Amino acid sequence: AAASAETKEPWYASFVLDGSCADDLLGALPGTERLIKPPAGMLPDGARPTGAVWVFFGEAGAAPLPGKPEHVDDMRPGVLTVHAQLCGAKLWRLRPNVAAEAWSGGAASAPRIQPLKSGHPSAQLDSGAGGGGVGPRLEVCCRAGDLLLVDTAAWYHETELPAGGLSVSVARDFATLEEDPSAPLVSSMQLRVTRQLCSMCLTPTTPPLGAPPGTCGCVCCLERREAKLAFEALLRSSKLARRWCNQEFTSRIRPAGVHQFRSLAAPLLDCSSCPT
Question: What is the pTM assigned to this prediction?
Fold first, then answer.
């Protein structure tokens, strides 16, 4: 962060803690009291923390900075994530995951988001033209002191830091259903990423059409591959030129002998007719 303050470059980072380390962190951070002891009525009765605490922090420059790319988390049914915005602001974009188990009536019971009216500042993004064609999404801007409760398995979500200022947020998962005590702890992880951005050029890393799986499709990697191909082509052309010269020397110049070579080369070396 200190280096970023000197260079004015945007940056974004996150980490996760579990167990007693997570509890110690919450106790040391101001503004996390409602994550330690949720107010009555905020969560269903019997809700309890799963143990994992996530911290997201970063600072945008003159332009908004993409945070976590759009994804859903691999969560057991009944787990609710509470995000506390400690300072700065963070913009959330959400759309329902119609395949999630949270919608008891199946995909038909998932919420429908109405597209924004034309002329609205976010209408282009809402329609999918600026968001990868994913369709309408909800936009929620969290500011210092705000809480966002979301089932991150039932809602696709991505974040963005508004221009200027430091943003810090903390998230904690709460289990709201009775579960088998022997069941493994809830794991918060990205299950499906629909748009991953390169940290260097901030362009999508989706593999190019026809490329092997795992090939990065960002602009900087694409330019490096093209430069490598161009250099390899240059090497091949120089090898072909060298091979042609060797063949010509072997088939024509060497049999003719040195004297005949001189007679063949003399017109090329004669500068008497040169205008200079």
Answer: 0.59
| Sheet of 11-17, strand order | 11-17, 48-59, 166-175, 79-87, 147-150
Q: What are 135's two structure tokens?
A: 């369709």
Chain segment 219-269, per-residue pLDDT in tens? 888 888 888 888 888 888 888 888 877 776 666 655 655 555 556 555 555
**Residues 6 or more apart from 60 whose CB is under 8 A from it?**
10, 161, 162, 163, 164, 165, 167
Torsion sign across C-alpha atoms 153, 155, 158, 163: negative
DSSP the chain: -HHHHHHT--EEEEEEE-HHHHHHHHHHSTT-HHHHSPPTTTS-TT-EEEEEEEEEEEE--SS-EE-SPSEEE---TTEEEEEEEEESEEEEEEEE-TT-TT-TT-GGGS--PPPPPTTSTTHHHHHTTTTTS----EEEEEETT-EEEE-TTTEEEEEEEPSSSEEEEEEEEEE-S---TTSPPP---EEEES--B-TTT--B-PPPTTPPTT---SHHHHHHHHHHHHHHHHHHHHHHHHHHHHHHIIIIIHHHHHHHHHHHHHHHH--TT---
What average pLDDT does the chain have?
A: 77
Q: What is the pLDDT of residue 269?
A: 52
